[in-house]
Amino acid sequence: MHESSRRTRGKVRWSKLYSFSCLRPHTSDPDSAQELIGQPGFSRVVFCNEPQLHKRKPYKYTSNSVSTKKYTAVTFLPKALFEQFRRVANLYFLLTAALSITSLAPVKPLTLIGPLVFVVGISMLKEAVEDWYRFLQDLNVNNRTVKARAENGLFVDKLWREISVGDVVKVKKDEYFSSDLLLLSSSYEDGVCYVETMNLDGETSLKIKRSLEATLHLNEDAKFSVFKATTRCEDPNPSLYTFVGNLEFESKIYPLSPTQILLRDSKLRNTDYVYGAVIFSGHDTKVVRNSTMSPSKRSRLEKKMDKVIYLLFSMLLLISLVTSIGSSVVIKSDMSQWWYLSLEDSDPLFDPSNPSKSGFLQFIRALILYGYLIPISLYVSIEIVKMLQARFINKDKKMYDEATCKSVQARTSNLNEELGQVEIILSDKTGTLTCNQMEFRKCSIAGFSYGGNINEVDIAASKRMNTDSEAYRSSIDQSDTTSQSLEMSEFSVVDIIAQQAILRGHENADNSNARNSRLSDVRKESVIKGFNFRDDRLMNNQWIYRSDFFYMTMFFRVMALCHTGIPVEDGQTDKLKYEAESPEEVAFLIASQEFGFQFFQRTQSLMTLKELDPSSGKQVKREYKLLNLLEFSSSRKRMSVIVRDEDGKIYLLCKGADSIIFDRLADNGGAYLESTTSHLSNYAEDGFRTLAFAYRALELAEYEQWNSIFTQAKTTVGPEREELLEHATEMIEKELILLGVVAVEDKLQKGVLECIDKLAQAGIKIWLLTGDKKETAINIGFSCSLLRQDMKQFHVCLSKETESKKPAEVAHRHWHIQITRLVKKHTGKTTLAIGDGANDVGMIQEADIGVGISGMEGMQAVMASNFSLPQFRFLERLLIVHGHWCYKRISKMVLYSVYKNIAFGLTLFYYEILTNFSGDSLYDDWYMVVFNVFLTSMPVISLGVFEQDVSSDVCLQFPSLYRQGLRNIIFSWSRVVGWILNGIVAASVIFLANVYIFSAAAFRQEGHVADITQFGAIMYTCIIWTVNCQIALIITHFTWIQHLFIWGSVLLWYIFALAYGALPPDYSQRGFNILTESIGAAPLYWVATFLVTIAALLPYFTHIAVQSLLSPMDDHIIREMKHGKKDVTENQMWLREQRNSQRSTQVGFSARVDARIRSFKEGLSLKRISIYNKSATNTPFYKSWTSSPLFS
Question: Where do the annotations place ATP binding (predicted)?
Answer without folding.
Answer: 428-430, 585, 632, 655, 689, 770-772, 839-840
